[in-house]
Amino acid sequence: MSAPSMEERRACWGARDQYWKCLDEQAEDAAECRRIRLDFEARCPLQWVKHFDKRRDFLKYKEQLQAGQYLPPKTTEKT
Amino acid sequence: MLPTLLLRLRRAAHACAALRRGCPPRPALHTCPWPSPRLPAWEPLASPARALSGRAGAGGKAPLPLRTRLLVAVLLGAGGLGTWLYLRREKELQQLEQRVEQLRHVAVGQGDFQLVDHTGQPRRKADFAGQWVLLYFGFTHCPDICPEELEKLVEVVHLLENDSHLPPVQPIFVTVDPERDDVAAMARYVRDFHPRLLGLTGSPENVREVAKAYRVYASAGDPDVDGDYIVDHTVLIYLLAPDGLFLDYYTRGKSEAQIAQSVRQHMVTYRPFNQ
Known about the structure:
heterodimer; A: mainly alpha; about 65% helix; elongated; B: alpha+beta; Glutaredoxin; seven-stranded mixed beta sheet; CX6/COA6-like_sf (chain A)
């Protein structure tokens, strides 16, 4: 299985960007963006889909960290 | 400016004192507090401020024309600025030299390598002697990082090509995934970026040796249902001097302009090891 060419990479990134834009608009409600998701999965290799999903999770987590929404749980203070 | 200001303050003080002591009309003889009416009123003619002023009775007017004072101020300012800029440049160069010394000491990328380029031709490290090299380790199945870093590397090469005084830089892409990235795969990959971008691959043992020599971490992930996998690896662009020694490295956070500027500085200050 050969690696994606430059055009295929760009098509994959475009589909990913569209999917992420849909998620942003729908407040992470994946049900609304199912069709775009299918397009995204069709254009990108499976490993890349997984990689980008993890990246999305990480970016959201980073946003929340920077917004100060995570506080250490009380129980760790006792350990 | 400051001496002039002090001068003016002193003159003002003297003028006030003179006013207090001499200028108002003297009281009548019988009430005169002064020692003798025959003594002249005290005139501070001998004060150094009045002597320097060049005009008697000066009290508030400038001693030197404004133009001269401005000129002196501008010259002093320019001199100060020039000195500061020169010292700053000297410090930058000194820091660069120290860093290069440290990196030579670390001696990354020692030893030879035996790889094959994307046209099938064998390549050794000695083949690149005399050339500046920008080196990046990655793999062709990389989702986003490698294409982005290679675009950046190629843009740096473009920026440096625009400057005809500088020697040309050889961009090189070495795979950390030799099992999948054979010569044909490398050829397909590099042609999308730059005509001079050289792809290097080889046997897994040889590639592992090069990665080890350049302290590149590479670890293949678990294969997927279709056999695809992602290789986790160090993301760095290495700068090699014409003598083959590692001079500097650039992380993902560095922009094209920053890298190009750093390479330019290295080229200008470069001294070969044996000189």
